[in-house]
Amino acid sequence: MKKDEPPLDFPDTLEGFEYAFNEKGQLRHIKTGEPFVFNYREDLHRWNQKRYEALGEIITKYVYELLEKDCNLKKISIPVDATESEPKSFIFMSEDALTNPQKLMVLIHGSGVVRAGQWARRLIINEDLDSGTQIPFIKRAMDEGYGVIVLNPNENYIEVEKPKIHVQSSSDSSDEPAEKRERKDKVSKETKKRRDFYEKYRNPQREKEMMQLYIRENGSPEEHAIYVWDHFIAQSAAENVFFVAHSYGGLAFVELMIQREADVKSKVTAVALTDSVHNVWHQEAGKTIREWMRENCCNWVSSSEPLDTSVESMLPDCPRVSAGTLLCRSFRWGSQFSTLPGTQKNLLFPTEFHT
């Protein structure tokens, strides 16, 4: 028999969940010291998933705080000319992001629930902050004299509760005989009663109906990348701009290239892709873009081959090399600089990157 589902009412702080990050950046229960447990209540997968998602939202805010307090980044609202009432998003930048004359690093995460400053929420919860966030990348880049811009490509809309629509009863607007109207209303009420009973069994706690209000010029990861390029990166003083883009972030970068080819070529020195899902054919990237990518981009992919070993690709876009692992474990920078294969351009590429 189906268990009664507890209320979908979860804490809004880490302390409320009785979890905290220890000195190693690992999420641990404050009383037992144990890692996070997904199956907190057996046979209630939906409730456990909602609990996990609620914790994930808290962690997103926690990472935002770290970006500002620990990395000294500024939170910049976009669109830059947004009115007070319209939906807004934001990115993070170092103090010198637009004024550093030498070099600027731009970080783009992948798709899904991750937000600015994160590579993978699951890694933050199950491994540690260094594995799942961009913080080690940001700190290393700033130590090496880079300005930094952290994109937020999945923050495309805000959700608000859908207004309830009151449907006028058929008995108020119909010219049918009263007896026929009463019969129809009775059938309608019985049908609704059965539907509500089934819905209560299937979904014991009907959640509020929400609607999405998209953020102007930032309604998709691709739009967001172009917007941040036009309003920030293109306006920066840096002579050399470097990108690190993971998964769907690679696709967003290729779309940026297609839309702003000449500008990107004039400012971007090198691009480190990690398990990028871009496709130069589906995205209809031209020959000149593909040629530029072969010289200036490298894609580290999951592979059992030793780190940086060349990996064959069916697409004639950019070199693919091994990330040195098949396991989805962590994102880390090694202690050395790496040279983009086929070029003499040095970049803080992940020499110990684990996807």
Alpha-carbon Rg, integer: 25 Å
Q: Into which percent range does the helicity of residues fall?
A: 25-40%
Regions with pLDDT < 50 over 5+ consecutive residues?
198-202, 333-346, 348-355
Question: Sheet with the most strands?
Answer: 8 strands, mixed
Number of strands: 14
- The helix-and-strand class reads alpha/beta
CA(first)-CA(last) distance: 41 Å
Order of helices and strands: HEEHEEEHHHEEHHEHEHHEHEEEE
Give the percentage of residues in beta strands: 15-25%
Number of helices: 11
The mean pLDDT is 85
**Strand order of the biggest β-sheet:** 3-4-6-5-9-10-11-12
Please state the overall shape, judged from the principal axes of the Cα atoms.
globular
Detailed description of the structure:
The chain is globular, with a radius of gyration of 25 Å. Mean pLDDT is 85; it is low at 198-202, 333-346 and 348-355. It has eleven helices and 14 strands. Strand 13 and strand 14 (346-347) form a beta hairpin. The two termini are 41 Å apart. The chain is of the alpha/beta class. The chain is 34% helix and 17% strand. The strands form four sheets. The protein has an eight-stranded mixed beta sheet, sandwiched between helices.
